[in-house]
Write a structure and sequence with these properties.
This is CbbQ/NirQ/NorQ/GpvN family protein. Belongs to the CbbQ/NirQ/NorQ/GpvN family. With about 270 residues, the protein is α/β, with parallel strands linked by helices. Helices cover about 40% and strands about 15% of the residues. It has a 6-stranded mixed β-sheet. A two-stranded antiparallel ribbon has the order 4-5. α9 runs antiparallel to α10. The longest helix has 15 residues. The radius of gyration is 21 Å and the shape is elongated.
Length: about 270
């Protein structure tokens, strides 16, 4: 609860430098159109493919502050909207991140929204249609979202199951963008920019990453993310041996199974020689 209500890293100032992001399609234009037309946005894609970076990039690009919430099993509607707390012997109302975003005309980003409890999506519904309202039952307020407010949510379809999925009635309230991993040339440029490792040394890592991704659904639940490629290249750039960096950043995070690790290391050997 405290992490949601009081996290000092939750809000990104609009005046901050625009975070690095390389478009892979028309996502920038689509986000801008959704923002101007006051439409909520749903981002779908695998872990570590750039969804959160994209939202931060767009918030800075549009000059808006952003309130980011990492959703989890214990996240409730009250965590988002606010609650009464004791302060100095008095009971005072404290806005949650969603309420603050509405009041300020900011962007509210709910990362992995399917992880939150079901009552969270009920709170979002009035904000995701033409009403653009946020009812605060405990204070009796009915907040009218200003034109600058935008709601963005994301999730990883690969982790969906019967218990954790967005209902069609919720999904169809959003404009949606599907994210995937970038094409090799683009991903190489991204990893080079983020890690500082020369492009000619990054290219083999990207090739390896794609080889490991081909195993998703066989021995692996998830493939190597762009984030992990950046981590690996960063370790190498800092002086770590390539084989040690690959093990730490591209093998160990994927599985705990000893036999699967051996198989993945065999892929490394065959791909890089």
């Amino acid at each position: 609860m405290a992490g949601v209500m009081d996290n000092p890293m939750e809000r990104t100032a609009a005046s901050a430098a625009v975070p690095f992001y390389t478009p892979t399609g028309n996502e920038v234009a689509l986000f801008e159109h959704a923002y101007r037309n006051r439409l909520p946005l749903l981002l779908k894609g695998p872990t570590g493919c750039g969804k959160t970076r994209f939202v931060s990039h767009m918030a800075a690009r549009l000059g808006r502050s952003i309130h980011t919430v990492s959703c989890h099993d214990d996240l409730t509607a009250a965590d988002l909207t606010g609650r009464y707390l004791l302060k100095g012997g008095d009971t005072v109302w404290v806005d949650g991140p969603l309420t603050r975003a509405v009041r300020e005309g900011a962007i509210c980003y709910l990362d992995e929204v399917v992880e939150a409890r079901k009552d969270v999506t009920v709170v979002l519904h009035p904000l995701t249609d033409d009403r653009r309202l946020l009812p605060l039952e405990r204070t009796g307020e009915l907040l009218d979202a200003p034109p600058e407010f935008m709601l963005v949510v994301s999730y990883n379809p690969g982790y969906q199951n019967i218990l954790k999925s967005l209902k069609p009635s919720t999904r169809q309230r959003f404009v949606a963008i599907e994210f995937g991993f970038p094409l090799p040339d683009i991903e190489t440029a991204i990893v080079t920019q983020e890690s500082g490792l020369p492009r000619e040394r990054v290219a083999p890592l990207v090739r390896l990453g794609n080889a490991l991704r081909d195993l998703k659904g066989q021995d692996l639940e998830e493939g190597v993310s762009t984030r992990l490629l950046v981590y690996c290249a960063t370790l190498i750039h800092s002086g770590m041996k390539s084989e040690e960096a690959i093990l730490a950043a591209m093998i160990e995070p994927l599985t705990d199974d000893v036999e699967v690790k051996k198989a993945l290391l065999r892929v490394v050997e065959l791909t890089l020689g």
